[in-house]
Write a structure and sequence with these properties.
Elements lengths: L21 E2 L6 E2 L2 H12 L4 E2 L6 E2 L2 H12 L2 E2 L6 E2 L2 H12 L4 E2 L6 E2 L2 H12 L4 E2 L6 E2 L2 H8 L8 E2 L6 E2 L2 H12 L4 E2 L6 E2 L2 H13 L4 E2 L6 E2 L2 H11 L6 E2 L6 E2 L2 H12 L4 E2 L6 E2 L2 H12 L5 E2 L6 E2 L2 H12 L4 E2 L6 E2 L2 H8 L8 E2 L6 E2 L2 H14 L6
Antiparallel strand pairs: 1-2, 3-4, 5-6, 7-8, 9-10, 11-12, 13-14, 15-16, 17-18, 19-20, 21-22, 23-24, 25-26
């Protein structure tokens, strides 16, 4: 096949065994056939010239319209729930939900999958394999779709626009996630506690964290287990690594991840990006908004302790609370015999053994070992110096 994509290098997709010579110059996505590239270009031009004769919905390519029309014609219809699909393959995968058949098992963590492709992708979480490489920055990814999404970072083109507020996005999935904030639509409901989610991925995480207790990913340094590979990687960075490459431009404090830095900067800027859709209140942190929705508008789900009457707005707070009931003190101080049931309590305690004081009052210059102490002092100090609005 003749390569008509200029200087394209098909070897940048290291895992592909078939040539994909046709390159989209906007988002760097590659295609095996020229017609597939032509259909894809409609995404960027936002032209939707193919209309459904049944409902009037418009599509950017004939293939997408055909898949949509199959849903109207019931060509691929599930006999169990009568849900319709655009392709036979999608119907086949869906029917396995009803049968519960998952013939493909991971040999490492014993997790099972309905299709072999899902198992192959999952195996990469254990092997660390990332076969898809960005030809611009050489960053690698486990899935081709993740590479496609990443490639848009190198382009300023944002073809997906919210019709409600006009916010533009580089990825259709991001737009769909954003739209759910306007509509409040949460179609994915947990069958155990009835909590609803806007994304299926969030529901799966919820079931894994709250109900099953399955933790197949074990830290090789401390044997602590996690239910997600990403949580294990985050644990290793936070607990077993001292590398903090991200520094705050306002106070110089160092952070392990860019996300932690962005959250910290809000303290200095006063930014409150989370707004309540029921009232005019805005919040600095997402958890503040969730707590507000629970207490003020009775929206959301409380996490209740099954031992005592206490309830919490966050599952993480409940988990910490349950550890206190168990009275397991797994965290030992290296300087004295004291032990603690939470790592944060040990960290706070160990500061008492050292003379270093990293927190400073901005009004009088007095230094403290912990953040909570300087916050408590700052309130008193501001009143004594007459700063009533601080």
């Amino acid at each position: 096949m003749k390569n008509k994509a200029g200087s394209n290098n098909a070897t940048e997709y290291l895992h592909d065994d078939k040539l994909r010579p046709y390159l989209c110059t906007v988002c760097c996505k590659r295609f095996k056939h020229k017609q597939s590239l032509n259909d894809h270009r409609y995404i960027h031009t936002q032209e939707k010239v193919h209309s459904c004769t049944q409902c009037g919905k418009h599509f950017s390519s004939p293939s997408k319209l055909r898949k949509h029309m199959n849903g109207h014609s019931s060509k691929f219809k599930c006999v169990e729930c009568e849900k319709c699909f655009g392709t036979r393959q999608a119907l086949t995968i869906h029917t396995q939900i009803h049968s519960g058949v998952k013939p493909f098992e991971c040999t490492v963590c014993r997790k099972r999958f309905a299709v072999a492709d899902k198992l192959a992708i999952h195996n990469r979480t254990h092997t660390g394999e990332k076969p898809y490489m960005c030809h611009i920055c050489e960053k690698t990814f486990r899935q081709r779709g993740h590479l496609y999404t990443h490639s848009r970072i190198h382009s300023e083109h944002k073809p997906y626009t919210c019709q409600v507020c006009g916010t533009a996005f580089k990825c259709g999935a991001y737009l769909n996630r954003h739209i759910s904030r306007h509509t409040g639509h949460k179609p994915h409901r947990c069958h155990m506690c009835q909590k609803a989610f806007s994304r299926l991925y969030a529901l799966k995480i919820h079931i894994s964290r709250v109900h099953t207790g399955d933790k197949p990913y074990k830290c090789s340094l401390c044997n602590k287990s996690f239910n997600q590979s990403s949580n294990l990687q985050l644990h290793k960075r936070r607990v077993h690594s001292n590398r903090r490459p991200y520094d705050c431009p306002y106070c110089g404090k160092l952070f392990m991840t860019n996300a932690e830095l962005k959250r910290h900067v809000r303290i200095h800027t006063g930014a409150k990006p989370y707004s309540c859709r029921h009232c005019s209140q805005h919040f600095t942190w997402l958890m503040q908004l969730k707590t507000h929705l629970l207490k003020s508008h009775n929206e959301g789900t409380w996490f209740k302790c099954n031992i005592c009457p206490k309830k919490f707005s966050c599952n993480g707070y409940l988990r910490e609370h349950l550890i206190q009931h168990e009275d397991l003190r797994s965290y030992a101080c290296s300087e004295c015999p004291k032990r603690f049931n939470l790592a944060k309590y040990l960290k706070c305690h160990q500061l008492g053994h050292f003379k270093f004081r990293q927190f400073c009052c901005g009004l009088c210059g007095k230094t403290f070992k912990t953040k909570s102490w300087v916050v408590h002092h700052f309130k008193k100090c501001s009143k004594q110096l007459g700063f009533v609005d601080v």
